[in-house]
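To: structure desk
From: M.T.
Subject: fold request, one chain
Message: Could you run this one when you get a chance? Sequence is below, nothing fancy, just the single chain.
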Amino acid sequence: MKNKYNLIILFFLLANSIFAQDQFVGEVRLFASNFAPQGWAKCEGQLLPISQNTALFALLGTTYGGDGRSTFALPDLRERMAVQPGQGPGLSGIDQGQMDGTSTLAPENLPAHTHVAQIKVSSSVGTSSVPSGGSSLAAPVQVFNSASRPIAEYNTAVPNITLSNVTTSTTGSSISVTTQPCLALTYCIALQGIFPPRP
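Reply: Done. Structure tokens follow.
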């Protein structure tokens, strides 16, 4: 009876070992803790010795770094999102191992819009043709043709004012931060497992 239980335990241990090795070498998975399980490593761009990881090096090469003689690097997915390499419709494309993610907004990226300006107008006599900061634009005063029999030649009513269009300068190389909602999990890469056959 004791031997029967030992065989059952051995069977489950072997089965667990077999199923634990079902991953492909180089496969990346998300893990909900802050460490990488045994046989896996965090995807943090660290250098590994080729001599101890020949199967993984055969797949990755120096795509993510390393000198290719004694070391190679793992992908660095810290604060990054993984995307499929290639070029999707209407997109600029990205190569295997290429990092991307910052962009400068151009004027064509901004939607068409208008601004409303409210400007104070004063009937006081102007002393300058250019208003100083925070002051009003001066309205024209009444002009008479003579002192003895004055006839108004210019109306003092508040005139309509037409302003010229003003274009602001570009923002230069300012970066627009548009972080999507996210949740931090640990990306892990399999150091051991089944070597993936090519199709």
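Reply (cont.): The first helix runs from residue 2 to 20. Let me know if you need anything else for the meeting.
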